[in-house]
Write a structure and sequence with these properties.
about 230 residues; alpha+beta; five-stranded mixed beta barrel; 8 helices
Length: about 230
């Protein structure tokens, strides 16, 4: 379903329109100074990289929202919408914390536009509970859902955190390749030294790996007595 982005509309609104939202319920840590930077890369619908004047690159996770993953329905649309409006643009980061991946979690402002909130308003992100600290994020998500915008046009959209959990479970369910079986040949090492004396590949492997008869592997490829162990080379 086609949807309209609120980015362009927000630019024309008075500056006070968003200022109240910035101050409502948000208390930043004392260390979290604002950062001015230019967006140089957009990874997905809620992650970007920006570069400061001293060329420091800051990987940034948009605070309080969670956009669809890149391999999830509406993931490419969320990434495209974010890139269309912030890529190569100057923004202000209001840092909140650092996540376990080392990314700066921040509110991202493009002029008076709260970029994360705009993603929610377009139906391209969820309000990310339990990290939402401002109620207008929740209200925006409820409105987008009610109006069927973006991902809410789907019959049963899957939240990104559910999507990630399911994929993690699938990945862990895939059995690791079984190690090669241990050789069952347990004969003692005797006077056998050459491939002509071997009666099977299993015996040859035993004499190479257990008895240390290196001459059985003349080319050093780990395969002894190739006439026995690699019949195609006869």
């Amino acid at each position: 379903m086609p949807f309209s982005s609120p980015f362009s509309a927000a630019v024309g609104r008075p500056a006070g329109w968003l200022l109240g939202g910035l101050l409502f319920g948000l208390t930043l840590p004392a260390w979290a100074a604002d950062i001015a930077c230019r967006v140089v890369w957009v990874s997905d619908g809620d992650t970007l990289t920006c570069k400061t004047a001293d060329r420091t690159r800051i990987q940034t996770r948009l605070a309080q929202i969670d956009a669809p993953e890149k391999n999830q329905p509406f993931g490419p649309a969320a990434k495209r919408a974010l890139a269309e409006h912030v890529l190569n643009q100057d923004v202000i980061l209001h840092p909140e914390t650092t996540d376990k991946y080392g990314r700066t979690v921040a509110k991202v402002m493009l002029g008076t536009l709260d970029v994360g909130l705009a993603q929610i308003e377009a139906g391209l992100a969820w309000a990310y509970e339990p990290y939402v600290r401002e109620d207008h994020y929740r209200h925006a998500a409820a409105t987008a859902k009610q109006e069927g915008l973006g991902l809410w046009a789907a019959r049963a959209p899957i939240a990104p955190w559910v999507w990630r959990h399911r994929n993690e479970r699938r990945a862990s369910a895939v059995a690791a390749p079984a190690p090669p079986p241990a050789p069952s040949f347990t004969a003692a090492c005797d006077s056998k030294k050459t491939c002509k004396q071997m009666t099977s590949c299993e015996e040859a492997r035993h004499y190479l790996t257990v008895c240390g008869i290196k001459r059985l592997d003349r080319n050093g490829d780990g395969v002894p007595c190739e006439t026995l162990c690699v019949p195609s080379r006869r």
